[in-house]
Automatic annotation (TrEMBL):
This is Cytochrome B5-like protein isoform X2. The keyword Iron applies. The gene is LOC106767720. Belongs to the cytochrome b5 family. GO terms for molecular function: heme binding; metal ion binding.
Amino acid sequence: MVLLVALALLLGLFLAVLLFNPRHRKSGHEGKAQTSLNNDKTSKSYSKTEVSLHNKRTDCWIIIKKKVYDVTSYVEEHPGGDAILAHAGDDSTEGFFGTFIPSFLACTWINHVV
């Protein structure tokens, strides 16, 4: 009986965390991302100058590997806080992937998987 009560409490706690944790709630950027998936991305290109104009919390674009992303709706949820704004309107590739990744991967790579 005690085991059943303990399991019920753990399950309740787990569900409460899922319900009240902001990372698990639906947010505006998910719907926006889905909408942008349906658009033809080859129809419009942006210059770095044009992207640089979108450098505010309320209008935030970033470049990752030569692709432009509108992350305005994600700024408030970014796990690094305002760190995302450091590269607003600029190339965020290094900040996104980190500086150590390519060199670390190069010196630790063994071979391909089959």
